[in-house]
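Same chain as my last thread, 96 residues:
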Amino acid sequence: MAIERIEEKCKIYSTLLSEYNGDWNQTFYTVFLGSFEMPSNTLVFEEIAKKLPYRIIQKNHESIKSIEGLVFGVAGLLMTISKTHITMIYKKSGSI
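reply #2:
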């Protein structure tokens, strides 16, 4: 039974790795975020990882406020910020 669960996880990780064109950092980041909180939130956190790629987190690693803003914005928790402002942040970070 344990071996089947490990094999199932390996298939999931392999699929993600293929989806991200062999990018181990993005794959780990997605799996890591997916492991937060309760299992019922796994898909939500994985969706955040897909909408906010690891390379953007890397480019903004020196500014925790930028990272917080990006994560909260992608998660839909910043209702007062317009999409234009978020696009400007992406452009400023060189992600677009």
